[in-house]
Prior knowledge:
Structural class: alpha/beta
Distance between the termini: 51 Å
InterPro entries: Aminotransferase_I/II_large, C-S_lyase_PatB-like, Class-II_PLP-Dep_Aminotrans, PyrdxlP-dep_Trfase, PyrdxlP-dep_Trfase_major, PyrdxlP-dep_Trfase_small
Radius of gyration: 21 Å
Number of domains: 2
Protein name: cysteine-S-conjugate beta-lyase
CATH topology of the largest domain: Aspartate Aminotransferase, domain 2
Pfam family, one: Aminotran_1_2
CATH superfamily of the largest domain: Type I PLP-dependent aspartate aminotransferase-like (Major domain)
Order of helices and strands: HHEHHEHEHEEEHEHEEHEHHHEEHEEEH
Cofactor: pyridoxal 5'-phosphate
CATH architecture of the largest domain: 3-Layer(aba) Sandwich
Family: Belongs to the class-II pyridoxal-phosphate-dependent aminotransferase family. MalY/PatB cystathionine beta-lyase subfamily.
Amino acid sequence: MERGLNMTDFNMIYPRQGTNAAKWDGAEYVFGKPNLHPMWVADMDFPAPDAVVEALRNRVNHPVFGYTITPDSLAEAVCSWEMRRYHWEVKKEWILFSPGVVASISASIQALTEAGDKILMHSPIYPPFFGITEATSRSVIYSTLIDEVEQYQIDWDDFENKLKAGVKVFLLCHPHNPGGRVWTRDELKQMINLCKKYNVIILSDEIHCDLTMPVNQHIPLASLDPSFQKNIVTFISPTKTFNLAGLHASAMIVPDGNLRKKIENFQNSQAFHGLNLFGMVAMEAAYTHGAAWLDELLIYLQENIETVKDFLSRRLSKIKMKQHQATYLLWLDCRELGIDQETLFSALLNEGKLALENGLKYGPSGEGYVRMNVACPRPLLIEGLERLEKALSKYH
């Protein structure tokens, strides 16, 4: 039986000011304004599960923090989690650990491609995807998603045309950030079929997979086609799921021994591999004992999403929200307000004192959008929505 079966009070506010929290203490530096209500960076304002906190306390009680080996039990916890949540049989030897998913993606790109190679990704997309690609002297190739009212859709003709033009790697965000899409089984199979046709490696960022809303289903890409999983690298982490980003812990799942060796060699060449002591402790505790807490969290997040949807429909009906399937990050369409991005963000910062993510950060197709983080106690969510209304009601 999972630990943490007592209901968690997600409404309780834990003030984070003064803890060096990027979301709260870093907002003024990032946005240039004081006293902002932060709903931007992707972490949660909820405490970690009790089982994780207890495991960390138990380890801190031993006052020696020297060099640490990675225990087999950590890989076993990852394998067990993937089987229990997604019915995916992962072998321990497939797993490489690293301090973070972004770092893992960077290492994989550099290990598996050469300078000048083409990396395909959807647009809009999580900014480090193109940031890493450009920083490592690779070429960014976008396949722009079709912006339909309810959900983004893949432009399959464009996607295939881009693949056939010499792409080496397809960098997939699964579920999609910022759009909140959970890619369907048929869509994932089509991605695999096309990448198989053009001999393209897929790097699948699945860091948000555990935050798929209850009525939807996340399917690990590499679980779908055993004959192609040798060309897939999957990135996962407990940091989004259990609010552990400050502990820097993630895993790569690399079924193919040749790809795994290339990535591992690159990690070693950079002296960049493994996890810190507390990241290991937290990761194992979360994947071993965190399922019940996560199930409670998902219910609360779904209620927060419905709260936003109801608020917008009643008080800011020109702001539209995609049908949301995963993540706690809402992609809000503000184009009906009839104002440009500069005016939009000036109003948010100066009138609403509200820190949201600018849609343009996610590429040109993000113009007219903002990204809102709703992983917070409901009183803080309501305050943010009221600030949103204060900032934008005059354009409504």
